[in-house]
Amino acid sequence: MSNNTMQRYASISGILGAALFLFGLATYLFTQVMTAYSAIHLAAGAILMAVFLFANLQRLGAMARGRAARTAAETLSLGAITVAIVVTLNLIASVYPKQFDWTASGLYSLSDQTEKILKGLDTDVRAILFKQGGMDPQAEDLLRLYSTESKRFQYEIVDPVQHPDLAERYEVRQDGTLVLDAGGRHQKVTDELTEEALTNALLSLLAGRDTVVGFLTGHGELSVDDDQNAGGLALFRTLLEEENYRTETVDLFSSGQVPAQVDVLVIAAPTDALLPAEVSAVTAWLGQGGRLLLLGDPFRVGGAPLAEALGLNGFGDNMLIDQTIQLFAGPTLGTQIIADDYGDHEIVAGFNRRLLFAQACALHMPESPPEGMRWTPLVRSSPSSWGEA
Q1: Based on the structure, what is the number of domains in the chain?
Q2: Quick check: 86 pLDDT over 80?
Q3: Residue in 202, 181, 201 with CA at minimum distance from that of residue 191
Q4: Per-residue DSSP letters for 228-260?
Q5: Contact 282, 292 (CB under 8 A)
Q6: Which residue in 88, 192, 94 sits closest to 138, CA to CA?
Q7: Does 181 share its domain with 228?
């Protein structure tokens, strides 16, 4: 390699090193926290500037003594301008960060649900990761994604050995514990720090208390303890609990009313009809702001009295039949329903694929709902389908 080429590379390393060093210094002064991000910039910048000085010792001496001083001044001016531009761009990027994920699997992206939660934050959330040594690159990458998505989410990594008072304040007993703090409330993540675990903890923190989902029993409903049969709801309950919902069973016959702590009542395809007093208890609870998930299966008509009280007819008294076109077979009739016609509702806003229902029943809605209610269909079968009683 020629001397000119070496000098050119050395000059580039000097300019780049100065830019990295100044940016690391500016980031530290701006945040008042020596993060791994700032330390890496400072160290890399110092090394590159040292390479530049070592490669240009003789040249710098000659420039200081000879007629090359003017050229040196011009070079330094150009370098200073370049450094200023790079530092400015880096500062803008640090204040207004934007991350792009070009991986096919979205490895460095957050899920739509997490992004929605972060964008909806109306209070500041402080995430504190207690890690001996004060560094955890993998966890910091995840936390940085959250803080990039919302300025209300800030994080820091703390060495519990150096900050025992903070660890004691949050009763941290395990290395790697993450604490989310918002408005005096806090939530811990002690297991492996994943997006799912972090978002679930964030939801619990924001809720202030556990959201309770009650499952009605006593009418032959699908069981939340059944994990053997296709109609069992054990998996459904597990998924709810993984999302930090609390589940319990509700017996209206004994209590006479929906418990006050229940936020959502699930009535899962009962075979035996609800009694008039039970229907009245549920409708009264709904009038006070309760939320109901009424599920039906073909010919499981136990929920019909409640459905009729809500203005819905034919609940569970039929099986949906649809006509499908099969290759080389022409039109055929079947009970497997393929649907992709979604309503205008937040629940199905992100649905863009077909849904397959092994069995379904038709639900007939009047043109106008009862006073104080409105209808919003979530999914519709094809125009060629009908309910067979």
Answers
A1: 4
A2: no
A3: 201
A4: SSTT--HHHHHHHHHTTEEEEEE-HHHHSS--T
A5: yes
A6: 192
A7: no
Residue 284 belongs to what domain range?
Answer: 209-295
Shared domain check, 232 and 182: no
| HSE (side-chain half, CA atoms, 13 Å) at 48 | 19
Determine, yes or no, domain membership for 70: yes
Q: Which tens digits make up the pLDDT trace of 110-129? A: 888 899 999 999 999 999 99
State pLDDT tens for residues 208-267: 777 899 999 999 999 999 988 878 999 999 888 877 788 999 999 999 999 999 999 999
Residue 163: what residue type? H
Q: What number of other Cβ atoms are within 10 A of residue 304's Cβ?
A: 19
For the question of whether the overall pTM of this predicted structure is more than 0.70, the answer is: no
Q: What is the DSSP string of 80-109?
A: HHHHHHHHHHHHHHHHS-------TT-TT-
Whether 179 and 225 share a structural domain: no
Which CA distances in Å does 121 have to 165, 195, 330?
29, 17, 53
Q: Tell me whether residue 102 is exposed, middle or buried, using C-beta atoms within 10 angstroms of its C-beta: 0 to 12, 13 to 18, 19 or more.
A: exposed
Same domain, 347 and 268: no
DSSP one-letter string for 37-72: HHHHHHHHHHHHHHHHHHHTHHHHHHHHHSTTHHHH
